[in-house]
Design goal:
Blueprint: H1 9-16, E1 22-24, H2 26-39, E2 44-49, H3 58-72, E3 76-81, H4 85-88, H5 103-117, E4 126-130, H6 132-135, H7 140-147, H8 152-155, H9 159-166, H10 173-189, E5 193-197, H11 201-213, E6 220-224, H12 250-258, H13 265-272, H14 277-288, H15 294-310, H16 312-327, E7 337-340, E8 346-347, H17 348-354, H18 361-369, E9 373-375, E10 378-379, E11 386-387, E12 393-399, E13 403-409
Parallel strand pairs: 2-3, 2-5, 3-4, 5-6, 7-13
Antiparallel strand pairs: 1-6, 8-11, 9-10, 9-12, 12-13
Helix pairs in contact: 1-2, 10-11, 12-15, 12-16, 15-16, 17-18
Length: 410
């Protein structure tokens, strides 16, 4: 097997530290990088993910982007699908025991998850493993031996468990097993580095302990920050509606990214792109000095992220569409068409609600008074305006900056 020629250790370290919350321990990481550089043997960087849901958003991609950076440097990216542990359920952040998933649910989620992940990772250079390969085969004796390698008192120091105990909330036995099982994954994979979000720190640290118990060198833990959502305040979450889904259409992704507050976009540059810290610092300096406009820098960010998931051509089209619709206030080339049957006239406010462009009539009235509604490019100022639906018609309706629909009365 030919040896890999790696970049200097200092250069690798600087690149891999970009955006990282914590490295435990950094001196061990430097030693591992040095040994890898001298021997030509790649580090095994592990990322374990339980496929508990079929869709992922940019918040999930932060640690996957870091795994890609290991891959870019020539190290082995090990993507572990927790098909066994997903059925157990990760207690991290849970205030109560949650119902386990079925094998069928997990398998279906795993397939769609990998399809999405491979938009970022190079599938030919990624080692895909499933922890059912070994966890399904553990005997009762081996499980008891594994449990004997960790103290209950230390397990209950975990914040989630400690909080639930103090609030007299139940903790099931299988939840105590979860951290041990994911730690055992690191033993079976002989991981040099494990990646995870900051909230996964306890699980990652347990991997270090259990590897030592099995006479292996402890992995280095590398935690990544939680990505703040589009609202600029809270963790990116589908339930909060402040997310960017990676399977969303390019134009929708682009528009959402352009809504990110200016001061937040720098963390997106850092956590979601391969741009170096020096390059990001240079961009920030140019914006601060007035040599670059924040909008143009944000446009470059949106194009780069959309390109990752949809390709360069789609990113360019999305950028052009955004320019036309949101900055030049023109209609999109492919505005959705809504066909309506002929009938009596309808109040514009009622029509906006019926088309689900606005949530309520009072909100529609307020938007009209603010000049936010247009018909065929002409602003409508009267909230009491009636829309004639008695004859065939075709007109473009705009509500707010982003919502366009072509109305066809037949």
């Amino acid at each position: 097997m030919s040896q890999t020629k790696f970049k200097p250790v200092a250069e690798q370290l600087e690149y891999l530290k970009k955006g990282v919350a914590e490295i435990i321990r950094e001196d061990e990481f430097v030693s591992k990088l040095k040994r890898s550089h001298d021997t030509g043997k790649p580090l095994r960087a592990k990322l374990g993910v339980d496929p508990t849901a079929p869709d992922i958003h940019l918040g999930h991609m932060v640690v996957i982007e870091k795994l890609r950076q290991f891959q870019i440097l020539g190290h082995k990216a090990v993507f572990l699908v927790g098909d066994f542990t997903a059925m157990v359920g990760d207690p991290t952040g849970q205030s109560e025991t949650r119902p386990p998933l079925s094998r069928e649910q997990v398998n279906a989620n795993a397939k769609t998850y990998l399809d999405q992940v491979f938009k970022i990772l190079d599938p030919k250079k990624t080692e895909i493993r499933y922890n059912s390969e070994w966890l399904d085969k553990l005997t009762s004796y081996e499980i008891v031996r594994l449990c004997a390698k960790y103290r209950v008192a230390r397990m209950l120091e975990r914040e989630d468990f400690h909080k639930r105990l103090s609030e007299q909330q139940p903790i099931s036995m299988h939840e105590l097993l979860y951290p041990l099982l994911v730690a055992y994954d690191s033993v079976m994979l002989e991981a040099d580095v494990e990646l995870g979000a900051t909230e996964q720190k306890f699980n990652l640290l347990m991997g270090r302990d259990i590897q030592r118990e099995y006479s292996q060198e402890s992995q280095v833990c590398m935690t990544m920050p939680i990505l703040v959502g589009l609202d600029g305040h809270r963790k990116m979450s589908k339930s909060l509606g402040n997310y960017v889904g990676i399977t969303e259409p390019p134009s929708e992704m682009f528009g959402k990214l352009m809504s990110v507050p200016d001061d937040l976009m720098w963390s997106y540059w850092q956590l979601l792109t391969v741009l170096t810290d020096n390059d990001i610092t240079d961009l920030r300096r140019k914006v601060a000095a007035g040599q670059a406009h924040p909008m143009s820098v944000k446009t470059a960010l949106a194009k780069r992220i959309v390109c990752d998931f949809h390709g360069n051509e789609a990113a360019e089209r999305a950028a052009s569409e955004f320019q036309r619709v949101f900055r030049d206030r023109q209609a999109p080339e492919e505005a959705p068409i809504m066909k309506l049957p002929r009938g009596p006239a309808k109040k514009l406010t009622a029509l906006l609600v019926d088309l689900k462009l606005i949530a309520s009539k009072s909100e529609a009235e307020r938007l009209i008074k603010q000049g936010g509604v247009e018909i065929d490019g002409a602003r409508v100022d009267d909230p009491r305006k009636d829309i004639d639906l008695s004859e065939p018609a075709d007109f473009l309706l705009r509500a707010g900056k982003k919502k366009f629909v072509r109305i066809v009365v037949e």
